[in-house]
Amino acid sequence: MNGSTLQTFAAECAQELPGAQLEHPFGPGWEVFKVRGKVFMLMTEVPGRPVVIIKAEPGEAHALREHNSHITPGYHMNKKHWITLEGGAGVEKKLVKELVTDSYLLVVARLPKAEQPVDPHTYGTSTRAAR
Asked: What is the fold of 3-128?
């Protein structure tokens, strides 16, 4: 999928997540998705290329970068904990949905239990177990 389609689909995935909100704290060129005030996904353009920036477990982020040319270290983010996803022929909807959901759950897991909109240990396990 191309970069614009990637961003549209990633935004649709994020908006389906409980408690997710879209904000523009850095101006109109940045779309920032948060849950309970904590960022789990950003979208912008990096010199003409639409990108999606999401949180990932450090080990998984490294493996994703090693095996996918469309995934690079997080643009303007901590390179250990964030990845940048660009559009391309090898980018499939299933991967995008999993990455967005995983990013959201990483953030939710760090929230105080009373503020968690879902249980991060059980949310979406039926869809993610097939990986």
From this structure: Aspartate Aminotransferase, domain 1 (3.90.1150)
